[in-house]
Specification:
The complex is a heterodimer of chains A (about 150) and B (about 400). Chain A is built from seven helices and four strands. Chain A is an alpha+beta fold. Chain A is elongated and about 50 Å long. Chain B is α/β, with parallel strands linked by helices. Chain B has three domains: about 210 residues, Rossmann fold (3-Layer(aba) Sandwich); about 80 residues, Roll (Ubiquitin-like (UB roll)), CATH 3.10.20; about 80 residues, NADH-ubiquinone oxidoreductase 51kDa subunit, iron-sulphur binding domain (de novo design (two linked rop proteins), Up-down Bundle). A five-stranded mixed beta sheet of chain B has the order 6-5-9-7-8. In chain B, strand 7 and strand 8 form a beta hairpin. The longest helix of chain B has 19 residues. Chain B is globular, with a radius of gyration of 22 Å. The chains are: A alpha+beta (about 150), B alpha/beta (about 400). At the A-B interface, helix 2 and helix 5 of A face strand 5, strand 9 and helix 12 of B.
């Protein structure tokens, strides 16, 4: 496991590197914790509030610990016309959670925006792994190996 | 109509991982021509004459934008906008996948024309593979002296850096994109000052879409006159159209501007799959207008007089079997998530629109909802800070007006 200091040292302490650094921290440790955010703020000589301001804005930077199973379903227009809402409903039934809820600390089902994989929809992302042309009947097969 | 291909010309014929394969089909000869025989002023005049306009959706004249930055002294930057995140749009990704060097050559040329010594490629946060392709392309270009200090023995220097976004739709807007590169929240800034005057770190900056940039080598090689003869006179050239939805051959096609929607769907896309009945089509991604069967013969251009704005060039064909409420939920949900939260009308408006869309799907819509829907759409259309709010209202407004989802 790398330390936060090591990740930070890869970047020059200039504000233009703030977003790339936060992305890297989030990817390496799963999320940007308060402790890490403080260290980042110190390293870049900016207030902690400013670090959080940037970190909380972007989809690819998490400021909360992520559940062990994160399922994302694209609902962009192309995926929507090829049935992503049926997939979402099936997943809600199968995982017994509602899309967008943050109550379950182990599983999260999220509706996301376009990933640029249009034409191969509906697109589902499970813990970073991308599945294309997912159908409602194929949901069980995809999720089985993660549960 | 001519069948000239400008961007997709070498797709499938060359190996995107090898610069030699692009050079073999005449790649980088526009750059060589520029350095040996031409100067920035001449090329700038040529680009202006060609009538090339921004392919990201706004359709601003590229020549004018470049010269706004070129006429200023001091340090300046060129940014290639590859933060494509409009649903249904993957044209810029396809350019990188098939021929990254045509894009790179365009970036080098644009930067040299405006006198920038540093250029950036702002790439969508989800495009990991494309980032790797571009990194490799940059390395190869540097080895061949198309980049770096003293490009092909001239006194031009240029450095190109890739900056990857972190998944925010609004960052495709140029001021938000610059904010994001400076390490801030990706919220749009008040304009003026425009980025061409005060952009990245307060320096003059030219932000151009990847597809626009890819046209530049062709214009330099073939001249403005040849370019302006292609397509519609008001916004000449070719455009990448992305066909999707209920269509036999989905994917990216290159066709001249001014083409009708019917031609695109039935000639290029092969029509609808067997057994599907055409209902309507949406032009330009989630933020685009809806077009019914009766309007299919409208030519697509970037001109403001054009009834249907071309936008990003995405064409989504919807057949009768699609549940319209799903689609409405998709539109409104997208804009609710992607609204940056800077202005109240968009932050609240997109949220309430999504709420109503949910009730619409559940069949629980009340008269009060119908009343407030009008107010919300008006507010989004007229009072938001940046165009995102307006986009959020477009499709929903059209669905009410043209598809009569609320009844007459």
């Amino acid at each position: 496991m790398r330390s936060i200091e090591k990740v930070l040292l890869e970047f020059d302490p200039e504000t233009r590197n703030l977003l790339p650094a936060l992305k890297k921290i989030s990817a390496a440790f799963g999320y940007v914790s308060e402790k890490d955010a403080k260290k980042t703020a110190e390293y870049f000589s900016i207030p902690l509030s400013k670090t959080y301001e940037t970190a909380s804005f972007y989809d690819l930077v998490w400021t909360k610990k992520q559940p062990s199973l994160a399922v994302q379903v694209c609902s962009g227009t192309n995926c929507a016309v090829s049935g992503s809402f049926e997939v979402i409903k099936e997943m809600e039934n199968y995982l017994k959670i509602k899309a967008g809820d943050g109550f379950n600390s182990k599983i999260k089902l999220e509706i996301i925006s376009c990933l640029g994989q249009c034409g191969e929809g509906p697109v589902v992302v499970v813990n970073g792994k991308i599945f294309t042309r997912v159908t409602a009947s194929g949901v069980h097969g995809i999720l089985e190996e993660w549960l | 109509m001519s069948n000239t291909k400008i961007i997709t010309n070498n797709w499938g014929k060359i190996d995107p991982d090898k610069i030699e394969s692009y050079i073999a089909v005449g790649g980088y000869s526009a750059l060589k021509k520029f350095i040996r025989d031409l100067d920035a002023q001449t090329v700038l005049a040529e680009i202006k004459k060609s009538g090339l306009c921004g392919r990201g959706g706004a359709g601003f004249s590229t020549g004018d934008k470049l010269s706004l930055v070129a006429t200023q002294g001091g340090e300046k930057y060129f940014i290639c906008n590859l933060d494509e995140s409009e649903p249904g749009t993957h044209k810029d990704r396809s350019i990188v996948d098939n021929n990254p060097h045509v894009l790179l050559e365009g970036i080098i040329l644009s930067s040299l024309i405006i006198g920038a010594k540093k250029a950036f490629i702002y790439i969508n946060g989800h495009y990991e593979k494309q980032k790797e392709i571009l990194e490799m392309a940059l390395e190869q270009a540097e080895k061949n002296e198309f980049l770096g200090r003293g490009i092909i023995g001239s006194c031009y220097d240029l450095e190109v850096e890739i900056f990857q976004g972190a998944g925010a739709y609004v960052c495709g807007e140029e001021t938000a994109l610059i904010n994001s590169m400076e390490g801030n929240r990706g919220e749009p800034k008040l304009r003026p000052p425009y980025p061409t005057g005060s952009g990245l770190w307060g320096k003059p900056t030219c932000v151009n879409n990847a597809e626009t940039v890819s046209n530049i080598p062709w214009i330099i090689l073939n001249g403005a006159d040849a370019y302006s003869k292609i397509g519609a006179p008001c916004s000449p050239g070719t455009k990448l159209y992305i066909l999707g939805g209920s269509i036999r051959n989905p994917g990216v096609v290159e066709a001249p501007t001014g083409i009708t929607i019917r031609e695109l769907i039935f000639n290029f896309g092969g029509g609808l799959p067997r057994g599907k009945e055409f209902w309507f089509t949406q032009i330009g991604g989630a933020s685009g207008h809806l077009v019914l069967e009766s309007e299919l013969d409208t030519p697509l251009t970037f001109s403001r007089e054009c009834p249907v704005s071309l936008g990003s060039g995405a064409i989504l064909v919807v057949d009768r079997s699609v549940n319209i409420y799903d689609l409405i939920l998709s539109w409104t949900g997208f804009f609710r998530r992607e609204s940056c939260g800077k202005c109240l009308s968009c932050r609240e408006g997109t949220f309430r629109l999504h709420e109503i869309a949910g009730r619409l799907q559940d069949g629980e819509i009340s008269d009060r909802d119908k009343e407030s829907l009008k107010d919300i759409l008006w507010t989004l259309n007229n009072t938001t800070f940046c165009p995102l709010g307006k986009f959020a209202a477009t499709a929903m407004g059209d669905a009410i007006l043209k598809l009569k989802i609320l009844g007459d």
